């Protein structure tokens, strides 16, 4: 026979356990942020053009991506959004272009760089729109630093061509919109917007000079598919990103003049990640 004090203790313990479970569930549903890590690969393309729009060179090939982020994008209610992300990239791509005399040259270019980005915005819950459950307005500030190391080579006439190194530092801003919608076992999130450099510095080692390509608007977009479950979950993200740089002002170096031609950068990538 169970005594009344013991029975009261069991009831109290049961009530405490239920309260603790309820608190844990609320904690999961009201998480202030998530952290995630990801790894992926992207197809990188860099092209340069002369004043008449004729292409001078193309660099293209795969780069490895590693990244991490801290965000509250998975919240369902209306309110403020934020995302802090960092990623590193490295790769060796094909270079097909010409030397300073216009003779065809083929070689490799090695890239390595680091990107950091801070995003803030606001989410509107939109259950009345059916499939789309939320709409976001987003603003970002970011910094991108990378080294472009063009290897030594031989041109089409058999003459040796010396490579050189360029170090880029780019600060940029982005404006965009996002939308999310659920599926049976997953959630989708789509984002699209425009991007423009705030400042661009290009340090060219062979001339010991810093160039400043002009700043133009470009586009970005991404689509993320995440397994539908709270807390820890895998996801896959497909994305497009870009820069558009105009011709830099010329600078006198010794008895010559140097400048950076009009340049386009485009990447298409996929990353696989996990929310911790």
Folded structure, characterized:
- Helix content is 9%, strand content 67%.
- The strands form 3 sheets. It has a 10-stranded antiparallel beta barrel with strand order 1-2-3-4-5-8-9-12-13-16.
- The chain is elongated and about 65 Å long.
- It contains 1 helix and 16 strands.
- With 276 residues, it is mostly beta strands.
Helix share, percent: under 10%
The major beta sheet can be summarized as: 10 strands, antiparallel, barrel
Cα(first) to Cα(last) distance is: 48 Å
Taking Cα atoms only, what radius of gyration do you get, to the nearest Å? 26 Å
Q: What's the gist of this structure?
A:
With 276 residues, this protein is mainly beta.
Task: Give the topology, please.
Blueprint: H1 4-29, E1 34-49, E2 55-71, E3 79-98, E4 104-125, E5 134-150, E6 153-154, E7 160-161, E8 164-182, E9 186-204, E10 209-211, E11 214-216, E12 218-227, E13 233-246, E14 251-253, E15 256-258, E16 262-275
Antiparallel strand pairs: 1-2, 1-16, 2-3, 3-4, 4-5, 5-8, 6-7, 8-9, 9-10, 9-12, 11-13, 12-13, 13-16, 14-15
């Amino acid at each position: 026979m169970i005594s009344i004090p013991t029975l009261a203790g069991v009831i109290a313990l049961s009530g405490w356990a239920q309260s603790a479970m309820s608190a844990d569930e609320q904690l999961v549903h009201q998480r202030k942020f998530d952290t995630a890590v990801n790894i992926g690969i992207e197809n990188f393309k860099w092209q340069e053009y002369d004043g008449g729009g004729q292409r001078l060179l193309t660099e293209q090939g795969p780069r490895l991506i590693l990244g991490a982020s801290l965000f509250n994008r998975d919240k369902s209610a209306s309110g403020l959004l934020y995302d802090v992300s960092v990623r590193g990239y490295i790769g060796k791509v094909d270079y097909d272009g010409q030397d300073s005399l216009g003779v065809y040259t083929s070689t490799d270019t090695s890239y390595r760089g680091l990107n950091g980005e801070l995003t803030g915005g606001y989410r509107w819950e939109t259950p009345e729109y059916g499939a789309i459950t939320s709409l976001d307005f987003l603003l970002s500030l970011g910094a991108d630093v990378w080294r472009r190391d063009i290897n030594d080579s031989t041109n089409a006439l058999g003459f040796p061509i010396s490579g050189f190194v360029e170090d880029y530092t780019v600060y940029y801003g982005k404006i965009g919109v996002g939308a999310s919608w659920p599926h049976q076992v997953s959630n989708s999130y789509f984002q699209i917007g425009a991007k423009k450099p705030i400042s661009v510095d290009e340090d060219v080692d062979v001339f010991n000079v810093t160039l400043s390509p002009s700043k133009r608007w470009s586009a970005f977009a991404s689509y993320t598919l995440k397994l539908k479950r709270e807390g820890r979950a895998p996801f896959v993200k497909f994305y497009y990103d870009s820069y558009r740089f105009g011709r830099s002002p010329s600078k006198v170096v010794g008895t010559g003049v140097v400048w950076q031609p009009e340049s386009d950068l485009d990447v298409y990538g996929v990353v696989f990640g996990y929310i911790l």
